[in-house]
């Protein structure tokens, strides 16, 4: 018995030594934008699970939606001797300074989910196919609209996030033909109305629309913007409405605001992230769809890229994203549209969340 315990103890010590050996060779620093949004807690949780399985030492830090805090986080990680930085920027352009500082120390820089712009110090971009996120919203809203002159309200993400542009571009690719042919009438953006016959928008044109309808990725901003739009709208601009909701957290705020307006008879609203709260909203018929961006995949892609770089190799790419300075290599992963019809299959049967997290499934 004693012998077995001693043997087991030796085996355990050996295992620990092996793990820490692996640890020493793959030092990864991960910086996420905020703990205030369910989306990034999902990533944190999935990172914790995956890193444990891979036996990799990595530190995850949060930037509290503050670029200065983000820069300080990166500097701390540089001091700790990381070899690979996985950075999801608070602000795509401001993060360039942090990326430059890491590059100056020979650290590989992986942009995570959001592109880091205006620097050549980005080695790889781990991302979902964000154009397809927007395209999925557009497809959904178009599939729900019949007849002409349907009221469409547009909302967008934060202009400081490069993704907000890509999502909008994807949505516009599907919505614009249906705005041009009179199926939809955009209620809350004069800029979008003025550009309704233009299939491909320039970045400045997108910025003009986003400037009018941004939520800043903030539910309080989303709510006050939706309230202002509804106050400005006539009853005829309400009734049955279609809403481009840019992510789950803001979509819930917008949906609640529209639901409370007595002149709104029904609404269809999009989202993304598969927040648990939004999955419940979908089950309850309070949000129409979300886009599942399986964070397990993104986390696995980030870890794979970090390991590849640690071996002195380069991760495989399938496309590039221009960041204003260079074409950043990437291999975007697929996204899944989720409505009431497939919510059980896509979210529960896929093992993403347990059924016990929801009621009325
Ligand atoms: C992410 C979304 C997220 C949003 C707000 C975007 O860059 O891709 O998943 O909802 O930021 O945090």
Per-chain topology:
Layout: H1 2-25, E1 28-32, H2 38-54, E2 58-62, H3 67-79, E3 84-87, H4 96-104, E4 108-112, E5 124-126, H5 130-144, E6 150-154, H6 162-180, E7 184-186, H7 190-194, H8 203-213, H9 219-232, E8 239-244, H10 248-259, E9 264-269, H11 276-283, E10 289-292, H12 295-310, E11 319-322, E12 327-330, E13 336-339, H13 343-349
Parallel strand pairs: 1-2, 1-3, 3-4, 4-5, 6-7, 6-8, 8-9
Antiparallel strand pairs: 10-13, 11-12
Helix pairs in contact: 2-12, 3-4, 5-6, 6-8, 9-10
Structural summary, described in words:
The protein is of the alpha/beta class. The chain folds into two domains: 2-128 and 294-330, Response regulator (Rossmann fold), CATH 3.40.50.2300; 130-292, Rossmann fold, CATH 3.40.50.2300. The chain contains 13 helices and 13 strands. It has helices spanning 2-25, 38-54, 67-79, 96-104, 130-144, 162-180, 190-194, 203-213, 219-232, 248-259, 276-283, 295-310, 343-349, and strands spanning 28-32, 58-62, 84-87, 108-112, 124-126, 150-154, 184-186, 239-244, 264-269, 289-292, 319-322, 327-330, 336-339. The strands form four sheets. A five-stranded parallel sheet has the order 2-1-3-4-5, with helices on both faces. The longest helix is centred in the first third of the chain and has 24 residues, at 2-25. It is globular, with a radius of gyration of 22 Å. Residues 37, 39, 113-114, 157, 161, 163, 217, 247, 272-273, 293 line the site of beta-D-glucopyranose.
Under CATH, the topology of the largest domain can be stated as: Rossmann fold
Ligands bound, unique: beta-D-glucopyranose
What is the alpha-carbon Rg in Å? Answer: 22 Å
Residue-averaged pLDDT: 94
* Total E-strand runs: 13
CATH class of the largest domain equals Alpha Beta
Give me the side-by-side strand order of the main sheet: 2-1-3-4-5
